[in-house]
Design a protein that fits this description.
Number of helices: 10
Radius of gyration: 23 Å
Order of helices and strands: HHHEEHEHEHEEEHEHEHEEH
Helix content: 40-55%
Strand content: 15-25%
Largest sheet: 7 strands, mixed
Shape: globular
Amino acid sequence: MFTLRQIRYFQALVETRHFGRAARRLNISQPALSGQIAQLEAEMQAALFRREPAGVFLTADGELVADRVRRILSEVRELESLADRSAGLLGRRIRVGMIATVAPYLLPRLLPLLANTFQNLECQVRESVTEKLMADLLSGEIDCAVIALPLPLEDRHEVETIELFDDPFLLAVPAADAASLPDPVPAEALPRQKMILLEEGHCLRTQALDVCRTASDQDFATLGATSLTTILRMVAGGLGATLIPEMAIRDEAPADGIAVLRLAKPVPSRRLVLAFRPTTVRRRDFNAFADVVCRSMDKPSPADA
């Protein structure tokens, strides 16, 4: 009979697609990992992986096993979280994912407030793009995630959410160009700007494209960057304009060479939510965490919404 250890080893190999990287993650030797995977394949009476020069890939049977392993590990981690719940409301540990366009601006305000409110809480934060955070949430690698709607899931019943707050967009342009633009800037003026957006995979890129396409069906040329900070340095250099979330203004916009303009009503925004698995035993913890997130940003509590 296969073991929980083998299941964990299987999942590590699925995620890394490489025996060496999986072994390092698990802090075991590569032969030990190979032996456990071989035993699992023998128990399943099927080859679960294809070993190729480019990496390790799931077979058709492996895909079927991977789906069930994800569910099993999610349930196992829910059982493990019972120990965290026994310590009281946010009394021990919470593993939180955050998208990269939220974490740098939320954490400096959130973490001190959490520390003062819940002295025994250990808050572990993982920053990534939405798709990766959703995969980590469903597999039980994290307990909850602060992300922006919409969720990139085929089955919306896989997660539940607590609405946090709406984060309006503003337009950041080179300071020299600000005088030539109306204030507030109507949506139909956006496609005429050379927009600088985050690279593929970031939800903020998709949201910015949606805002611009609301005003025009025409495609427009864009530059790409890996962080909002990099984009704003490009704006300051006169290379174009970008949409910036309101929560980032205090940290990012004071740079020389940038002017931030309001957008005309209806002002486009993104809706931030706290996502978690519907099978969780820690709903009270997540409600409390969502409340602190909102208070840290001077927003109403979700309970008051």
